[in-house]
């Protein structure tokens, strides 16, 4: 039997082997919280205190759930497939699939990701003639999601004025429409499960007695509903093992409530509060930087981190003149690291906002470095993939109106806005889905619509006994999506992505273990109408594990996967690639080398948060998360200018630099206030911090008359039109890097080259 415990320090050992009572492990980044949690699961199983199916473990991302399962199978000779380890959303999806009737959902309910949800709401507003200036779709979406995150249905929301009453009414309408179409949003997955278990005593008691141990990672970022869900699942008997770090609470904007930690301590009568103070991840300079920074926050539970790893390399800071130069510098450094033997996947490039990734991606692409982007424009969010998925969704659940509208006329088949309007009228009149309303539309519109329905029915028929990947291939052919993109100028990429969808399905089938004899597409099953059956002994529960194989077709499972695990299949599996992601997405992960880009006032800390102290504290925690991802090398960069949302912005470097210890930092450029061509330094040094941004912008305007600016469009007699990318030196020594498009990048002496402003 493998000794699971020999690699643990005394505090970790104590935590892993706690008696079966609720416990809170409160500890800083890299102190082994996740490792302790995983080892505890293994230890509980190995010592026979629980069987693998008695464990419920909640992770923050799908990626960490997978990692946990891999680690467990390395520690124990058991098959971890099917263990209840996953995200809140993933676990709820599993429960709702199995008990869909009790939850009041159709067997093939489908999940709206946030993009789908927004278009769904826009459609809802339009269909009900609601003024979307007064009730913007995004606001309504936020309103609905935050109500759900608090566990509130429309009827329970307090509406204190006319505007709110209208929002509540729209929330109600939204829920009705979702129900009619058989779709659920992310928050609904949780709320529905919560309601199901609160209402249904036998089911609740069944799962309460099944899951004797509940373990939850990243506890600081649970929201109110997740906490309530947890209490319900735990009942009075389960031992809940929560691990978290208040300094890494970074999801307040999504309703996360760090107060859940103290509530947990109180309500679960936690006697075992363990702190871990030894950091195993980062070298000394990196850790000192993180510790010094987070000390500037006032509301902390207080804990320290130390390391035995030695100082290691200093944290390197680079000031770029433009975001393009920043990206090029990062690319060059990454290349050096790889040349020195680093794996590409051990290098992460982190940024505060998704918009920053484009320039970096471009630089990496030009340099021929493979990379993988997590989050952002994910594989399953790409338009062409959404189209293909919509066909599959309609085959699985034809009443999904969003899917219907997405592809009813894509590729174009002569179904115009007028026909859709007629169809929507009919659907409204009979209170049925668009698909079901097709027979009620007469004339030419009716027959075009009917042929679309025939197409879907044909696809269902032709694929009913096919394994999933072949099914996807048939749908790509029948839908004529591939042919459509073949005729499009930039369709090659899209076709490649569509082909990737077949590979994604293949991978999914092999990972999830759906054999070829898996249940056919859909259709009546022999399941009873409820997961509860009365028998001689009383009530018997059909557990999710027993029910799932009969209710979840490979297609349904794949479609849930597409909504829940967007992003996971983006780069080719197994390819060693640089890792690009937002700081939010990097939580819990670690890499040998980490770059954090865009450390500028307004970007990091973000301008939306920098007005209030609590906002800045959240940004600081985010920065703490970013820093503590690094094991050996950390680089921070900022840029004097940046193109964001189509505008060139002139920013000051982030205030966070002044909160980090000089002894741990190495400035690769002299530490001065940002400068650019033609500017006198003193005017800046006196600028008050909060107003600096505006002054910077004002300043650049006054300079445009006399000096060249980065970002400016110029024209040159020989090279034609170009854009100034970087300026070096000043006065008569000034030289500029100018991108002349087809002539490429040129370095010109500004005093000599006869440039003209455009
Ligand atoms: P975060 O707060 O970022 O989620 P964490 O507290 O969950 O971090 P882990 O990811 O569990 O920390 O551990 C950080 C690293 O330290 C991992 O590589 C882990 O394997 C290693 N580690 C943890 N404990 C020990 C130990 N006792 N001996 C050696 N390495 C350890
Ligand atoms: Mg962790």
Automatic annotation (TrEMBL):
Xref: Pfam families: PcrA_UvrD_tudor (PF21196), UvrD-helicase (PF00580), UvrD_C (PF13361)
Query: GO terms for CC?
Result: cytosol; DNA helicase complex
Q: Where, by residue number, does ATP bind?
A: 27-34
Q: Which reaction does it catalyse?
A: Couples ATP hydrolysis with the unwinding of duplex DNA by translocating in the 3'-5' direction; ATP + H2O = ADP + phosphate + H(+)
Q: What protein family is recorded?
A: Belongs to the helicase family. UvrD subfamily.
Source organism (scientific name): Undibacterium nitidum
Keywords from UniProt, A to Z, are:
ATP-binding, DNA-binding, Helicase, Hydrolase, Isomerase, Nucleotide-binding
Q: What is this protein called?
A: DNA 3'-5' helicase
Note the InterPro entries from the entry.
DExx_box_DNA_helicase_dom_sf (IPR013986), DNA_helicase_UvrD-like_C (IPR014017), DNA_helicase_UvrD/REP (IPR000212), P-loop_NTPase (IPR027417), UvrD-like_ATP-bd (IPR014016)
């Amino acid at each position: 039997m493998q000794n699971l415990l020999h690699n643990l320090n005394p505090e970790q050992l104590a935590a892993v082997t706690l008696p079966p009572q609720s416990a809170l492990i409160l500890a800083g980044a890299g102190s082994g919280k996740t490792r302790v949690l995983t080892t505890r699961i293994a230890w509980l199983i190995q010592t026979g205190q629980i069987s693998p199916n008695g464990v419920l473990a909640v992770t923050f991302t799908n990626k960490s759930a997978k990692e946990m399962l891999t680690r467990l199978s390395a520690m124990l000779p058991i098959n971890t497939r099917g263990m209840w380890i996953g995200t809140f959303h993933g676990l709820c999806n599993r429960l709702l699939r199995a008990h869909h009737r009790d939850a009041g959902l159709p067997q093939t309910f489908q999940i709206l990701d946030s993009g789908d949800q927004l278009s769904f709401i826009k459609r809802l507003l339009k269909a009900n003639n609601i003024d979307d200036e007064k009730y913007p779709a995004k606001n309504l979406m936020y309103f609905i999601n935050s109500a759900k995150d608090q566990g509130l249905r429309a009827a329970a929301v307090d509406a204190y004025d006319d505007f709110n009453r209208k929002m509540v009414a729209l929330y109600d309408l939204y829920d009705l429409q979702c129900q009619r179409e058989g779709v659920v949003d992310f928050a609904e997955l949780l709320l529905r499960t919560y309601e199901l278990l609160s209402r249904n005593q036998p089911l609740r008691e069944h799962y309460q007695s099944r899951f004797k141990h509940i373990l939850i990672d990243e506890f600081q970022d649970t929201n109110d509903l997740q906490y309530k869900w947890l209490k319900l699942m735990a009942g009075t008997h389960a031992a809940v093992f929560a691990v978290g770090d208040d300094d890494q609470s970074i999801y307040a904007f999504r309703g996360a409530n760090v107060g859940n930690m103290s509530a947990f301590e109180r309500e679960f009568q936690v006697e075992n509060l363990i702190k871990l103070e030894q950091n195993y991840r980062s070298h000394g300079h990196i850790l000192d930087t993180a510790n010094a920074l987070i000390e500037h926050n006032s509301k902390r539970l207080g804990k320290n981190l130390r390391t035995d790893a030695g100082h290691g390399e200093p944290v390197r800071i680079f000031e770029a003149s433009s975001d393009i130069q920043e990206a090029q510098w990062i690319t060059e450094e990454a290349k050096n690291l790889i040349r020195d033997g680093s794996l590409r996947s051990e290098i992460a490039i982190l940024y505060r906002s998704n918009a920053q990734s484009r320039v970096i991606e471009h630089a990496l692409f030009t340099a021929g470095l493979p990379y993988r982007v997590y989050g952002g424009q994910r594989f399953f969010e790409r338009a062409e993939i959404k189209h293909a998925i919509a066909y599959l969704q309609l085959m699985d659940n034809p009443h999904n109106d969003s899917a219907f509208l997405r592809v009813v006329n894509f590729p174009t088949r002569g179904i115009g806005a007028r026909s859709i309007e007629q169809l929507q009228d009919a659907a409204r009149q009979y209170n049925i889905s668009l698909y079901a309303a097709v027979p009620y539309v007469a004339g030419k519109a009716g027959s075009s619509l009917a042929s679309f329905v025939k197409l879907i029915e044909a696809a269902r028929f032709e694929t009913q006994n096919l394994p999933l990947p072949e099914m996807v291939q048939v749908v790509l052919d029948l839908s004529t999506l591939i042919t459509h993109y073949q005729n499009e100028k930039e369709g090659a990429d899209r076709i490649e992505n569509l082909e990737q969808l077949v590979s994604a399905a293949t991978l999914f089938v092999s990972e999830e273990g759906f054999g070829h004899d898996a249940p056919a597409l859909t259709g009546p099953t022999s399941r009873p109408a409820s997961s509860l059956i009365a028998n001689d002994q009383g009530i018997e529960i059909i557990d999710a594990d027993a029910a799932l194989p009969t209710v979840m077709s490979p297609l349904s499972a794949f479609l849930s996967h597409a909504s829940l695990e967007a992003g996971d299949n983006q780069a080719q599996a197994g390819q060693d690639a640089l890792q690009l992601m937002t700081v939010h997405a990097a939580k819990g992960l670690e890499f040998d080398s980490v770059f954090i880009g865009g450390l500028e006032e307004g970007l990091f800390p973000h301008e939306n948060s920098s007005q209030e102290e609590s906002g800045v504290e959240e940004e600081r925690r985010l920065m703490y998360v970013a820093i503590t991802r690094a094991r050996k090398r950390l680089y921070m960069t900022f840029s004097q200018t940046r193109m964001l949302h189509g505008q060139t912005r002139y920013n000051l470097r982030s205030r966070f630099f002044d909160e980090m210890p000089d002894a741990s930092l190495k400035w690769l450029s002299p530490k001065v206030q940002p400068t650019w061509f033609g500017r006198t330094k003193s005017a800046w040094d006196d600028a008050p911090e909060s107003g600096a941004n505006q002054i910077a912008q004002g300043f650049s305007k006054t300079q445009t008359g006399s000096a060249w600016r980065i970002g400016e469009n110029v024209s040159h007699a020989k090279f034609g039109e170009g854009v100034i990318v970087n300026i070096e030196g000043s006065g008569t020594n000034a030289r500029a890097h100018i991108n002349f498009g087809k002539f490429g990048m040129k370095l010109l002496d500004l005093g000599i080259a006869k440039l003209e402003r455009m």
